[in-house]
Each structure stands twice: as C-alpha cells, then as structure tokens.
Amino acid sequence: MLIRFATEDVPVGDRVIPAGDALVVSYGAIGRDERAHGPRAGEFDITRGTRNRHISFGHGPHVCPGAALSRLEAGVALPALYARFPRLDLAVAAEDLHNEPVVTQNDLFELPVRLDS
Fold it and tell me: So what's the pLDDT on residue 52?
C-alpha cells in the first residue's frame, strides 16, 4: 500500500483531490482493470496480450531503490528457471492459491509447483 498527500488540488477525471487529502493506492489492484485487460484481468497471466502499466516500484523521487536490481534478477533468474525446468507448472489448481490477508502487498501463502525436468 502506498500513501501520499496532495500538495495542491489535483483534478482526476470529473473529481478533484483537495490539497492535504490522502491518496491510498493498493498494490492488490494493480493490473486488474477489466476495461484495459478484459474479463480475466484478475487472473495472473504472464502471456497477457495487453500492456500492464503500473507503478509497483513507485515513481519519481519515490521509486524503489531496488527496482533495477529486481528487474535484472527477473530477467536472468526466470529464463534460467524455465530453461532448467521447462515443464514447470502449478502443483495445485489455480483456484487453490490463496493470498495472505495483507493490504500492503499481494503475496500468496504458498506457491506449490512441480519441477519436472
């Protein structure tokens, strides 16, 4: 979860966030806009054809200092994982995955996978 305060009146669509008001952004909502991604927007799909533009690493002066490292790790580690385990798959049905009840992040209790090589 991200909390910021408007330093001036900010027009957003047909509304205005008044100066001094808090804006709370939930990371759990990122990439789930059905208007942008269709009726299955709430499902994780790495092959999703629509662009997933988000601010999960923050923006501007609030950008996460580890963002570049995280992107590099994902770009190296994930291809290596899939090369080593080409049939990597969930060990349970997707419906059996459960998120932890935390509003500040979007974490699973566990992610059981099969590593058949």
Answer: 63
